[in-house]
Design a protein that fits this description.
Residues 188-197 have a biased composition (Basic and acidic residues). This protein has helices spanning 2-14, 170-204; strands at residues 27-37, 42-53, 56-64, 70-82, 84-106, 111-133, 136-149, 155-169. It has 205 residues and is an alpha+beta fold.
Length: 205
Amino acid sequence: MKKIILLLLPLVFGLSFLSFQAEAQRYGTAAGIRMGSNDYSRTFGLSAQQRIFKHVTIEGIVQSDFSRNTTFHLLLERHRPIISKRFNYYYGAGISSGWEESRIKNPESMQIIHTYGNPTTGVDLIAGIEMTVLNTVISLDYKPNVNLVGREEFFRGQVGISARMVLVKSKEQNKRKRQRARAKRKKNNETFGDKLKNTFNFKNH
């Protein structure tokens, strides 16, 4: 899996020059499942993405191996299309916290002390590719984590595969945004008109 990631990422960034005239993402809101794997555990969890700006989403991840590792992640991600907006690459960063196992090597006794239930806090990076097919977003990512507190290992990388259902399409989200903007302008215009009317009536009196 790691070899696949190493092969895919250079290809993704090599194709990034195709993205300048295209519009990324076919979804505004998507949620589903995520499976992760690293040298320590295999996790299963939930992933949800919400577009907040053009080409920018927030992703929340909750994952666990239902034994010694349970983590929460909040990521800000930048999306770029490859050829079309159905096929994107993305990258980003965020924060994480949870409870994880840790292994401490004792060079004097040649022993490894294994602990779990350690409260941890860290910083995440993420890079991946995604494709929207039949109202479902399939993605493959690599998410390295840098530990700040609670774990002996400074760095852990994780490969993840996600399948998220599109709950709100990008066109629908854009339409709602335009409707809210029009409603706000209408309200402001009505408020301004009422002020002018009240001012005019006051002067007449």
